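COURSE: Structural Biology Practicum
ASSIGNMENT: Worksheet 4, Part C
STUDENT ID: 0417
INSTRUCTIONS: Below are two proteins. For each, the amino acid sequence is given first, followed by its structure token string. Answer the questions at the end about the second protein only.

PROTEIN I
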Amino acid sequence: MDVNTVIHALGGLAMFILAMRLMTDGLMLFAGNHLKQLLGSWTSTPWRGVGVGILVTGVVQSSAAVIIAAIGFVNAGILTLRQAMGVAFGTNVGTTITAWLVSLIGLGLQLDALALPILTLGVCVRLFSSSIRWKGLGDALTGFALFFLGLALLKDAFGGLAQTYSAELGSYSTAGSLTGMILVGFTATLLTQSSSAAIAIVLTAASGGAMSFESAAAAVIGANLGSTSTAALATFRATPAAKRLALSHIVFNLVAGAIALLILPLLLKLVALLGDWINVEGSPAALLALFHSLFNILGVAIMLPLTGVLARQLEKLFRSAEEDMGRPRYLDATLSNTPTLAVSALHKELARLSDILVSLLRDALGGARSTPELTRRAQAIQTLGVAIGNFITGVRPEAMERNTANELAAALYAARYYQESAQLAPGLRRLVQERAQLAEPEANALGKLLEQVERCLEPDLSGEEAQVKQLIEALRNAHREARRQLLEAAVTGKLEVATLERLLEGLDFSRRAIELRVKAGQLLVNRDEAQATTPHPLPDAAPDITTNQPTEN
């Protein structure tokens, strides 16, 4: 093998990987939030999830990007693990579109003639567009052109390899070393971290005569198995939801690959028949693309009915304290048919949510918890709040009394306030840490504010409304005094502007976090009075307790 062939092969592979990245990033930028909305709203069942996974992966040309988006929805409580598994299964079929592009377009045309005009158009769109969205389209077109140029280099390299080593390659291919070819495909994916790139190598090698069809089919199975390495690497330091979804992806590929190997002779005969039917029997690359699609579709047909069982088993793995915290303890879907029972369960769950939030804020004030741990616990509160909101919207409205409807509305608002308060907890911790670096007057002013924050975290909010107002007013006074001290320190040059901005942000975070917590508690305590006056709980439930903006200018 001469140096020129190696350089052509490596250069073509590098260009192909770059092209895939440009296409993925560019198309996702051009699509904006539409793809995310598609994932979030069209995956109500695993079957629909499979369809969305196929469609979105085919558009963005990256199963990893689609799976990462699905993981984000699982973490946010928008998708269940079962729904996300349908999307992950669909991405395996969606990735086969790359093989069809290679076989039907990339290897059947004069690539330079096709790629250069597209490359010119893509660069022009990128350079002359003022919109970021259209710049993304330019990147995608550029990637599409590089995709074909990279294939041209690979095609030339493997064509030369087949001419030089045809005898040796032929004897190896007929030696029945399917295990070796599986390892070749697996290793190619492992090294490139792209199953599409590995399969492109296999298809161009088979098209150039560098390997037999059976050997190439085994290498395609290996490349498919190799894509699990990307999922496995992505789970390091990942959330439990990410690990479960990645494991489901691994299980799918292992099952699909094992079945394809067990019935490989039968699959190859079926591919030959289908290839003759669609008139691609003379194209090894097209037949391999057909084979790739066929065994992934077979994997979906086998695994999708087992999604529920697999999801239940996976949910027993990788459990964390934060995830258990984010799971409802008192809510049950069976209660949605009886609104009064649903309200009772909601009050218990909201009381639990309040306790979790108070613990979080106390730890932010001075506990031993690290900031990343506080962030994870805040995310658990977000997840629990979403679950509460989903439960409330699922309560059947038929024959619901007005008071019950008001209580459900109050509970929904309270859950939202608890969620917003939790988001501010890491900012409160940063304020505590910044205080240690300040001189005495400013540090003392912040200390008084933090003492008032601590007083407002008392668990009992069922006292007189005047007492609660007094606590909040004292908090606001401490906030104003700390703000004044910091501004004076900045004017006299004792504080840098960047430090001042961080401290002022922390001040607002601390006040806002406490006011939201108090507002939610009062909303629930005074729900009987609120529902007697108005169906909308906010104006009367917590009068004059908080505002969205600081009280001073």
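PROTEIN II
(use this one for the questions)
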Amino acid sequence: MSSAFDKLARPLQKWIRQKGWRELRDIQARSIRTICETNADLIVAASTAGGKTEAAFLPLISQVLDEPSGGIGFDLLYIGPLKALITDQAMRLEGICQEAELPVVPWHGDVSQSIKTRALKSPKGILLITPESLEALFIRRGLEIARLFGATRAVVIDELHTVLDSERGVQLRSLLTRLELAIKRPIRRVGLSATLGDMDLAKAYFRPDAANAVELIEADGGEAELRLQLRGYLSGDEDENSPSATDAIAAHLFKHLRGSDNLVFAGARQRVEIYADRLRELCEREHLPQEFYPHHASLSREHRDFVERRLKDPAKPTTAVCTSTLELGIDIGDVTCVAQIGAPFSVAALRQRLGRSGRREGQPAILRQYAVEAPLTTESSFVDRLRLGLIRSIAMIDLLLEGWCEPPKPQALHLSTLVHQILSVIAQRGGASASVVYNVLCRDGPFRKVTTDVFADVLRAIGDPENGLIEQSGSGLLLLGPTGEKLVERYSFYAVFQTPEEFRLVADGRDLGTLPIDNVLSPGMLLIFSGRRWLVQEIHDREKVIVVKPAKAGVPPVFGGDPGEIHDKVIDRMFAVLESSTLPAYMDAASLKMLEEARAHYDQFEFRTENIRVLGEHTSIIATRVRNELSFWWETLGKALNCLEQSDISRRPLLAPVSNKVGFELVATLITAEEDQYCLERTTEFYAS
């Protein structure tokens, strides 16, 4: 063992020996030395299953054992993005802490109230919590925050890349600032991430006032050999004897994945249910044991636990057909292959998912990518002709091979999250002056770009009697208004993202999961859910319960959800793929044919030299190489239309986007020929400049 091993407390040294470790990993040894020898914040970046959890907690727990603070409060704070990840990490930490007799306290909606009550009465050990549950503590136990975290010496933020550039990330940074202000001292921050783009930006998000002082410990090399293939399929093929694209992909997955542990990322929850159902059918048809199971956030916790346990059981081959629920660091053991149906929305996600495969020494990481495109006819749209799904898959694979992934976005104002935090601070303190709220959130917190003038405007807007979010007492203290009090009392207030109202699906008294309430259902309808087919028997609107029984047919319900955002570099690479003549070696014959079709049509549209292609009298395609260009274009066009309003043209033109695809926007302009010419001239001038 290295000298880093000698720095650990004896109970942890004993735990390492019991695990049979011959040596510490490089990132673990470096983290131990950094944490034990300095007070620096640090980010530990390594692939999935790279030993990041142990890299952070082995030295932190050692410090708790060897140098007890003597104060009251949780010793360490762990913040994770998912309840499932917290449950998983709690089990891992309990093994480490058992010998040290250090309590491990998971805290989220599924944890019993008795566990939480004991922890509140005697806070110590490691608290594992989500940002939303931490927000709830601030609001419900605002006056106890200093006592609960008075002894906290470090906060570990897991899956750091998932919160850097989001509203949830801003909320979390605000909570960390408020926590440090409450206990009147800084708390060491340790970030864990498998995928980070621009490390300097990540450091700035992590500790804005001392980004250069944040230590970075990044795993070097050691990545497994990568084997990948991109396969192309046509949906709705006119040949009645050929299987559908869905059936063909399911058959290929069944043939190559059966008998081993794998992950199939199918995208939307509807597609997860469809592919899980088809694969289950194939098992039954071949009289083989079932080993393909769906896994997504709408399924019951019991079902997801069952799938995760099977993945870790070497005696039971299991393939999980999933959404991003298994993308993060939940321990599911080693998987042989990662399959991706359609392109993900980020290279970082693709890299994170691929990190699940090739973890065993000498085993390659395997990626099977599937692209589904429509057959071309004389009626085909430009979207189908350009094969944008396939092109995005190629662009993302190429960027993955180059080692690139998305950096954090430049910080925005995040005014909606600011309003949320204003209400939270007022609720925590029972009232606060405007200057105190500004200092906590803007001067010291994450809303640094919000000036005092903008902050005052926000306060006036939410304090307007028609809004009623806040009000001001005679002494100048800001208090919650009638509407603000109602908002803060709701459980949904703790999250800065919207959560839809849902029905519970129940079969034989057992919860299967939940469905968004906007599904139009009635008794007698058929569903595919949890990888099986169901008949709707009863719907109880008041209790939000749907009772179902097994059936022989069904269709997946509508789950909703927002599409992801594509980075400018991915869009730019898509154009590069279309303008190149290179034929990637990882593509099969069908996908290569689709690529050649896409390039031929790209040339026909003359996008190499023109940004705008006029399809008809009032219809055009705009090719945008970067995402922001489109918003600039709309702004420019809006200014042009304002000029038209003030000119001799009396009728206000109308503009309607018909189809929004990555890098291309089809726009129908319901305006006169004179107005149309004017707008196109202004747009052309914009691109020329």
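ANSWER KEY EXCERPT:
Q1: The chain is about 40% helix and 20% strand.
Q2: Residues 267 and 323 are 5 Å apart (CA to CA).
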